[in-house]
Amino acid sequence: KHLTPEQRYQIEALLVAKKSQKEIALIIGKDKSVLSRELKRNNHKRGYSARMAQMYADEVHRNQRNSQ
């Protein structure tokens, strides 16, 4: 369900290589809906940043643990 930091860096590299979302999803072993959601959440003015996406995911995880 979740993406690892390695998968996020792989996504970033594959986007730079102009791979389609369908190809990227196959390569990282996730459903294309997971990839689509990841890109929707973490696509910024300068494109997708794996580092920023992971920082956001870590922050969300931290906030969920603190609220329980």
Account of the 3D structure:
The chain is mainly alpha-helical and 68 residues long. The protein has one domain. It contains 4 helices and 2 strands, in the order αααββα. The chain has helices at residues 5-16, 21-28, 32-42, 50-66; strands at 43-44, 47-48. Strands 1-2 form a two-stranded antiparallel sheet. A hairpin with a 2-residue loop joins β1 (43-44) and β2. It is globular. The chain starts with a helix and ends with a helix. The model has no long low-confidence stretch (mean pLDDT 94). Residues 1-42 form the Transposase IS30-like HTH domain. This is Transposase IS30-like HTH domain-containing protein. InterPro entries: IS30-like_HTH (IPR025246), Transposase-Integrase (IPR051917).
Query: How many separate structural domains?
Result: 1
Q: Number of DSSP helices?
A: 4
* Shape call: globular
Q: Uncertain spans, ≥5 residues at pLDDT below 50?
A: none
Mean pLDDT: 94
The percentage of residues in β strands lies in 5-15%
Largest sheet: 2 strands, antiparallel
Q: Give the structural class.
A: mainly alpha
Order of helices and strands: HHHEEH
Whole-number radius of gyration?
A: 12 Å
The strand line-up of the biggest sheet is: 1-2
Termini separation: 21 Å
Tell me how many strands there are. Answer: 2
Q: Kindly state the percentage of residues in helix.
A: over 70%
GO biological process, one term: transposition
Domain Transposase IS30-like HTH: 1-42
Protein name: Transposase IS30-like HTH domain-containing protein
Pfam families: HTH_38
